[in-house]
Amino acid sequence: MKASKKFLKARTSLVLDHPFFGSIALRLRVLEDPTCQSMWVDGKTMGYNPKFVDTLTLDETIFIVCHEVMHLILMHDIRRGDRDHTKWNISGDYSINWIVKEAGFKFPKGAAAGLINDEHKDASADFYYNLLPDPIKMSMPMPGQGQNGKGKSNESNSNGSKGVTFDGNIGEVRDQPNAAGDKASNADKNQQIQERRIDIAQAVQHARKAGNLPGNLSRLVEDIIEPKLDWKTILHRFVQKAAKSDYAWSPPNRRYIHMGLYLPSMHSQEIDGIVLAIDTSGSIGNNELIQFASELTAILESFETTLDVLYCDTDVRKHERFNRDDLPLKLGMFGGGCTRFSPVFDWIKDQNKAPACLIYLTDLECNDFPDYPPDYPTLWIKTRKYGETPPFGEIVEL
Predict the structure, then answer these.
(1) What are the structural domain ranges in the chain?
(2) Does the domain spanning 232-397 belong to CATH 3.20.20?
(3) Whole-number pLDDT of residue 147
(4) Which of 3, 89, 201, 335 qualifies as a cystine partner to 50, CB 3.0-4.6 A?
């Protein structure tokens, strides 16, 4: 079958059998591009090398078209920023392939089949980008399961995990240009995101009318169409609410001077004290600690406060105290037993502390909570999708 006809038939099959993916695919201009390695997409165009398509079965072509569409659904063409292009492509493939696999599409033979990790199948491209070694090479051990076309597997990467050797991907996602065909500005990207959400919402409607939208995809696209606040925003808001704000007339608030109004400006922000508890039962990885410490450091730089860090498994194993002069935070792991939450609350009580707030970093795989809610606000930052629901406090997933 001629490549152009096979490609057209693949898109038609998606429209008929998988209307959610097909609806997005139909919005794209198709370009025969013999200069590319396989296929690519950039939000406006899907290009393909006819010689590459000639090597595929129809089912494999359908898979790759669907795969490229998923790059757009997850907005990989808009969200790369300054990150390495090759590494971002591979990270995106990891975040996509489990979705395409569960939707029932046939994987092509070769390296792409290895770019799937069932352990972190709900993870984003951002997660994998932080996990993959740097710099990335076109032939190196990668985190995941499976086996590529060269048969290399079960090698260890720089993080010590088993993986496959990557020797080429099945498609490419390129940054979406602006309307003039130039590099998109931040304003352009915000507009592209809003337009993409509308496209996805319409695709969902088409699929639901046809009675063909898998449950896992339904949950995924709901988060895309109506995104929830991320953990960083919630953490910042939570700490901000605990702050004491002090105002001064000199200098006045410049925001209102042009209106002839002289109002006091923010003079300083103080917090009585924050307690950070870290679950050291072995459920929190080093990457998560680094990511969390970096974000909390950025927040605490704005405040005058002390931070008591408690490392706890079945008991409080270590206590550290920091203030603004000690930033940036460097967090470790002390302990490694099972999980209990009550020792942290007991420690605060025994120390006669009245913290402005408590932040607990944990997988919540434990139901050992205090008998009564504390009289200070608590934020549970959950590192895993599942776990217990605390009887008090606010919960956000890392």
Answers:
(1) 3-225, 232-397
(2) no
(3) 33
(4) 3
